[in-house]
Design goal:
834 residues; alpha+beta; N-terminal domain of TfIIb; Rossmann fold; 5 domains; 7-stranded mixed beta sheet; 6-stranded antiparallel beta sheet; globular; zinc; Poly [ADP-ribose] polymerase; nucleus; transferase; DNA binding
Length: 834
């Protein structure tokens, strides 16, 4: 076969694998018409056919395909493009060598089959430090490979065993207890020296072979990698190199929802750059709808569903661009809020809850003996294998009687169509034995290790989640009607907002937390802490400059597996960019407050606390301000005046103001009020789901285990002097337009002023807070004093005359929560304009 002078060489298989010099050589060759040199392929075929016919022994398809494969050279990975330029004589010589090797290898396998038992094969592998697991065929293949070419060294990444598979040697071990290893090579390390046979063996064939083996082993000649596999390995090494000539992506037509305006142009540029088409709205030609960020554009998503268009996560687009081809939608699909089977209903009895799928919620309880509670939820997420599974195991004892049942439920996280349940009746002692057996089978740990908090994650096994059901003390009480409440009507409405279970459910769904098997708010503090630790590891990996791409990818998979095993998600994925990472940090911060709310008031099916009971649990006095009071009017002016000019997506309307007195907060604040001075009344916004935790525990600083990234000026409590700057963090939408905001008295003291982000644990010595200087600020001449000496910056936004600042608006940060006294809680309606 000759190269056509008109051929587009960049479309040749393996073109992307060539060095620039090789690409130039092939390009010049194509321009000359290829008249003097033949491509190796046809001649190689003929030579192979002759050799095969001379061999005289026919084997199965695998043998024939191996013997007919093309070989460019014995050592080193060979690209497809380079192989095409090998002279025909050299190619034939290597073909013959591989044919000879292949015949010798298969003859050796035949001899082993005739003369060596499975036990002897296993003993021989163990004597040489090789993997001795698997079937007889696997053992024979490994022995033959070692006898001909030498014992294989261990994987350089995880020290696992290598096995020959699919034309190369692959590791089947684990990088860590969380992830499989994906290392592969065509040039495995071999252990020097002769292949050993068991010392005690009486096998005459093995003894004879051992005496005849040569000291120096040949190098195994491997078949040429296919263009597809070469391209896949190249993909990881050039993750950020996107080809505009990709044929497969020219059919990609996508619409995107959830994007802020300033990001639309960037995504359109990326899609156009790979030959795809960006659609502003879903239409009949759209391939799929990509959801970026939260699932808040329900209209566009409903439209996509009506038109039967797949709805996928942002990862789909990222992976298509990186792999330079259209990928299947299945692994990236997003489930609509409400599409899944809603959250599980739980009824706490004692210290735990019977799963509703058992059918025994009303008539049984979880078996407890001493400190042992026979109930566990196991989870396993492995992105390298596509695993995202849960396993629930319980012993249920009848309320009236001593009969016990072992209940099991398993499946894929967030997918009720995959999985099953099993309920078995047995005696208490048998149930405990079966429970412990199953726990060990699934986790690789004895049940006692979990109880003693010494459990260790095992490779390829489940890991228990620490679920805190709280304690139901079963104190009889008379359910009070809301009409019996002694609280003022505005406060009753506030309490209904704070303790509305649907608000928390929607937040969990937005974060794609598994709601079908994860009781709302019951993920314990320790699990959230472990999630933060995994994110810190991801943060450190993202910071590494010039890493080995394949190693970095493996480590990111490993850390992402840890995160999604501890924080079960409907759509686990590799957390590989800064924005995704930051969104997971915010998610865990919100989960912390949901966990606090759950511990305080519970979201259980049998929770019958009244509004007044829940209010008392906050340990915070909350009093509505009269709308005609001086303070209400001042706060309304502060809100109306300080809306920033760039925050145009919504306007704000003040509905209610509540004065706050959190238990113990004034005492902690008093020394700083008197000592530091420079006190200001400043804004702070947060999600509605965070406010039960805020009112109960105050504003908090991110925990030590939380990653540092995402905090411009370090871990502290952040405030603003413009209301809309803080209102952004309420995350309201048209469907849920009412949010809550705080006005806090903040003792700033001596302020450390900065014009750009700078991470710090605390400000320099002599400074008590940090201020990010914005390009705009409230008009100072309109400031007023409140309660004597507290500054209220209620002026309209004007240029600050701060030169070369990277911040648009002022930010204030304190690193000690005792410098903050929450003064007012505002109920604010957002009028969204689109």
């Amino acid at each position: 076969m000759e190269l056509s002078p008109s051929i587009d060489v960049y479309k040749l298989s393996g073109w992307n694998n060539l060095s620039s010099s090789d690409q130039s050589a092939v390009s010049d060759f194509a321009k000359k018409g290829g008249s003097d040199t033949k491509i190796e392929t046809e001649e190689g075929k003929e030579s192979t056919q002759q050799q095969t016919s001379k061999g005289g022994i026919k084997r199965g398809k695998d043998v024939d395909s191996e013997r007919k494969s093309k070989v460019a050279k014995a050592k080193g990975d060979v690209s497809v493009g380079s192989a095409m330029l090998v002279k025909s004589g050299e190619a034939c010589d290597l073909e013959k060598k591989m044919e000879t090797q292949s015949k010798e290898l298969w003859d050796l396998k035949d001899d082993l089959k005739k003369h060596v038992t499975t036990t002897e094969l296993r003993e021989m592998l163990e004597a040489n430090g090789q993997d001795s697991s698997g079937s007889e065929i696997d053992l024979r293949d490994r022995c033959a490979d070692g006898m001909m070419f030498g014992a294989l060294g261990l994987c350089p990444i995880c020290s696992g065993f290598l096995r020959y598979s699919g034309g190369m040697y692959r590791c089947h071990g684990y990088i860590s207890e969380w992830s499989k290893c994906s290392y592969s090579t065509c040039e495995p390390n071999r252990i020097e020296g002769k292949w050993k046979i068991p010392e005690e063996t009486n096998n005459q064939y093995l003894k004879k072979w051992f005496k005849s083996q040569k000291g120096k082993k040949p190098v195994r000649i491997l078949p040429l990698p296919s263009p597809r596999k070469s391209a896949e390995s190249q993909m990881i090494a050039s993750q950020h190199h996107h080809s505009s000539n990709s044929e497969n992506l020219r059919d990609l037509k996508v619409a995107i929802c959830g994007l802020p305006n300033d990001s639309i142009a960037e995504w359109k540029r990326k899609i156009d750059g790979i030959g795809g088409v960006f659609h502003a709205k879903v239409n009949k030609d759209t391939n799929c709808l990509v959801v970026v960020g939260s699932l808040n554009d329900e209209a566009e998503m409903r439209k996509a569903r009506r038109m039967k268009k797949p709805i996928v996560r942002e990862d789909y687009l990222i992976d298509c661009i990186e792999r330079k081809k259209r990928l299947p939608f299945d692994m990236y699909k997003v489930e609509m809020i409400g599409e899944t089977s809603s959250m599980v209903t739980i009824k706490v009895k004692g210290r735990s809850a019977v799963h509703e799928a058992s059918g025994l919620q009303d008539s049984g309880h979880i078996l407890e003996e001493g400190k042992s509670i026979y109930n566990t939820t196991l989870n396993m997420s492995d992105l390298s294998t596509g695993t995202n599974s849960y396993y629930i195991l319980q012993i249920i004892e009848e309320d009236k009687g001593s009969d016990c049942y072992v209940f099991r439920k398993w499946g894929r996280v967030g997918n009720d169509k995959i999985g099953g349940t099993k309920l078995e009746e047995m005696s208490k002692s048998d149930a405990i034995c079966e429970f412990k057996r199953l726990f060990y089978e699934k986790t690789g740990n004895p049940w006692e290790a979990w109880e003693q908090k010494t459990i260790q994650k095992q490779p390829g096994r489940f890991f228990p989640l620490d679920i805190d059901y709280g304690v139901n003390k079963q104190v009889p009480k008379n359910k009070k009607n809301d009409a019996d409440s002694k609280l003022p009507p505005p406060l009753i409405e506030l309490m209904k907002m704070l303790f509305n279970v649907e608000t928390y459910r929607a937040a969990m769904m937005e974060f794609e937390i598994n709601m079908s098997e994860m009781p709302l708010g019951k993920l314990s503090k320790s699990n959230i802490q472990k999630g933060f630790e995994a994110l810190t590891e991801i943060q450190n990996l993202l910071k590494i400059s010039n890493p080995d791409p394949s190693v970095k990818e493996s480590l990111l998979i490993n850390a992402s597996n840890r995160f999604f095993t501890m924080i079960p998600s409907i759509h686990p994925h590799i957390i590989r960019d800064e924005d995704d990472f930051k969104s997971k940090v915010k998610m865990l911060e919100a989960l912390q407050d949901i966990e606090i709310a759950s511990r305080l008031v519970g979201f259980d099916a049998n929770n019958d606390d009244s509004i007044d009971d829940n209010y008392k649990k906050l340990h915070c006095d909350i009093s509505p301000l009269p709308h005609d009071s001086e303070e209400f009017c001042l706060i309304e002016k502060f809100l109306q005046n300080t809306h920033a000019p760039t925050h145009t997506d919504w306007s704000l309307e003040l509905e209610e103001v509540f004065s706050l007195e959190r238990e113990g907060e004034s005492d902690k604040f008093a020394p700083y009020r008197d000592k530091l001075g420079n006190r200001m009344l400043l804004w702070h916004g947060s999600r509605l789901t965070n406010f039960v935790g805020i009112l109960n525990q105050g504003l908090r600083i991110a925990p030590p285990e939380a990653p540092a990234t995402g905090y411009m000026f370090g871990k502290g409590v952040y405030f603003a002097d413009l209301v809309s700057k803080s209102a952004q963090y309420c995350f309201t939408d048209k469907k849920n337009p009412v949010g809550l905001m705080l006005l806090s008295e903040v003792a700033l003291g001596n302020v450390y002023e900065l014009k750009k982000a700078k991470y710090m644990d605390k400000p320099p010595e002599g400074k008590h807070s940090t201020k990010g200087l914005g390009k705009k600020m409230p008009q100072e001449s309109e400031y007023v004093k409140w309660r004597g000496n507290v500054t209220v910056p209620c002026g309209k936004p004007v240029p600050s005359n701060v030169k070369s600042s990277e911040l648009m608006y002022n930010e204030y940060i304190v690193y000690n929560t005792a410098q903050v006294k929450m003064q007012f809680l505002l109920k604010v309606r957002f009028h969204h304009k689109r």
